[in-house]
Design brief:
19% helix
Length: 204
């Protein structure tokens, strides 16, 4: 995840789950953000509106004392088109596949990922008391830390919302068109016009 918020700051969309409550066969959950939570997330992520945010998740035991969270984030967002400046609505669906492990398990840092990319490697900020990374997991993303015996599914879904947003949203069907120069503009910007401008700058 991105680590763009302080680890000790309260999460806007928080749905903590104790790892002890996860049965051996796993747990299926659907979580949804409330209206005030959606409004706060829209303001945080620079959205014109956020009318839906939910996650359909399966949480299952993973390795020793860890858990795996799979599923998807679904959202309906309103953004401003960078071309027409008109608001438009779109649906977002982002797959989720994140592992969590106790803080005493060797955890390598996961690099921050810019918004709008396809890589699924955003990680939550780590508290200052989490031990320094000791080893890397080969051929897979390193797990996020389990802090205080719990994971925050709401914060996870909110992070995948931020991950899925296009930083340069464009309304469907709107294309960028470069301004066309008239014949008069072409003459004004021609080589003789540039020489005339230089004549006024250079010493005689």
């Amino acid at each position: 995840m991105s680590g763009r918020t302080d680890a000790d700051a309260p999460q806007i969309f928080s749905r903590p789950l104790s790892v002890e409550d996860v049965p051996p066969e796993g747990l299926d959950l659907t979580i949804s953000a409330t209206g005030p939570e959606r409004d706060a997330l829209a303001a945080q992520d620079g959205l014109e509106g956020l009318s839906k945010l939910e996650g359909s998740l399966h949480v299952a035991p993973w390795r020793k004392d860890g858990v795996a969270v799979t599923g998807e984030m679904r959202a309906r967002v309103t953004q401003i088109c960078v071309v027409s400046l008109d608001p438009f609505e779109s649906e977002l669906v982002e797959p989720i596949d994140v592992k969590f492990a106790p803080v005493d398990m060797p955890i390598a840092p996961r690099p921050a990922v810019p918004r709008g990319t396809a890589t699924r490697t955003r990680r939550a900020p780590e508290p200052a008391d989490i031990p320094a990374p000791k080893a890397e997991f080969e051929d897979e993303d390193p797990p996020d830390p389990i802090v205080g015996g719990a994971i925050d599914l709401g914060a996870l879904v909110a992070e995948f919302l931020a991950l899925g947003l296009d930083p340069y949203p464009r309304k469907p069907g709107v294309a960028f068109e470069e301004p066309q120069l008239s014949a008069k503009d072409d003459i004004a910007e021609g080589p003789f016009s540039q020489l005339k401008a230089l004549k006024g700058i250079l010493p005689s």
